[in-house]
From TrEMBL:
Record-linked InterPro entries: Tom22 (IPR005683), Tom22_pln (IPR017411)
Name assigned to this protein: Mitochondrial import receptor subunit TOM9-2
Subcellular location: Mitochondrion outer membrane
High-level lineage: Eukaryota, Viridiplantae, Streptophyta, Embryophyta, Tracheophyta
Region (Disordered): 1-22
Species of origin: Cicer arietinum (Chickpea)
GO cellular component terms attached to this protein's record: mitochondrial outer membrane
Family: Belongs to the Tom22 family.
Gene that specifies this protein: LOC101489721
Amino acid sequence: MASRRGGVSLPERPNNSKDNSTFSITKISRSQIVSWGKQTASDTSFVVNKLLKSTGKAAWIAGTTFLVLVVPLIIEMDREQQLNDLELQQASILGTPPK
């Protein structure tokens, strides 16, 4: 048992099991499967990052194009509709048949 300074102490492990566990972890971490997994994760992260950046740029372009081209068109169509409604209202008040 280890020396007691206070609290509960656990029994020491034999040296050979400690060496085996360290050797096993080192062997596993250096295996081809682990390195392939790390490389795949790195490649996936790179692709996702590029995809998010390009999607953000495309959304910015689409949004600004909509504001510059489509919103003024919608406003003008609304004005035209209001003018038509006003003319129809005036025609009905004056008694002339609508066109």
